[in-house]
Amino acid sequence: MEFLIYIVTGAFVGFFAGLLGIGGGLILVPVLTTVFAAYMQSDHLIHIAIGTSLATILVTSIASVMAHHKHDAVRWDLFKTLAPGIFIGGLLGGWVSQFIDASVLAKIFAVLAILIAIKILLDVQPSPHREMPGTVGRSIAGALIGSFSTLVGIGGGALNTPYMSWHNVPIKQAIATSSACSLPIAVSGTLGFIIAGWGASNLPAYSTGFVYWPAFLGIVIASFFTAPLGARMTHKLPVKRLKKIFGLLLIILAIKMFWH
């Protein structure tokens, strides 16, 4: 039953990860925290949920990026300048997580999600002349996005997509490029959480640091097939509907994390 839950979750997460370019973590962290609480006893449930989420995002992102690339929607020029900072920030965020209490991590996740949701639902528009900053500015932004994203296991899309959209990158390109930016976040974040949890006590069997492999396997099996489907839908749904889905989803999950 536990493994079946991971497969169903993976199918759902994969679709929305491809659709919204969010990497899946915004959905995975609250769901995994709840499932882990039912099936295991550990003082590090949220840390394990975040670490496992980041590991699954690697596979989900690959499937999403391949689908978006077929539509020529990925801005590889932006990816190349954002990725180095994102990778360094991701390592830092994953390593720092071991020093932060689980309840604090949950609240950071919730506050961040609500702030992003408000911005999206209010449809705050950037200046028509606002453009993406230069290489230095993108590197700094990438480092900040990478560190915050890995700290709460969200894959970066929840920050990357609004960041690029605010700088007048078309929403569908922002979503597609965010999927690509989730790759360095997933790699560095997973490594960071494995290192952070290496010596932790009271971890479940079949885990490496804060990554729980049975959940990883069940989720990636399903999400690898549903992520491309969601990515294809990105290019068929209207922009306003995409933004509303994204914003409402963030609020629901933020409330869930506050409640937990």
TrEMBL record:
What is the recorded membrane topology of this protein?
Multi-pass membrane protein
Q: Which Pfam families match?
A: TauE
Which interval of the chain is the signal sequence?
none
Q: Which domain of life is it from?
A: Bacteria
User: Which positions, given as ranges, span the membrane?
Assistant: 12-39, 45-66, 78-96, 102-122, 174-198, 210-230, 242-259
Keywords of this entry: Cell membrane, Membrane, Transmembrane, Transmembrane helix
State the compartments where it is located.
Cell membrane; Membrane
CC annotations in GO: plasma membrane
Q: Which PANTHER family match?
A: MEMBRANE TRANSPORTER PROTEIN HI_0806-RELATED (PTHR43483:SF3)
What's this protein's family per the entry? Belongs to the 4-toluene sulfonate uptake permease (TSUP) (TC 2.A.102) family.
Protein name listed in UniProt: Probable membrane transporter protein
- Species: Hydrogenovibrio marinus
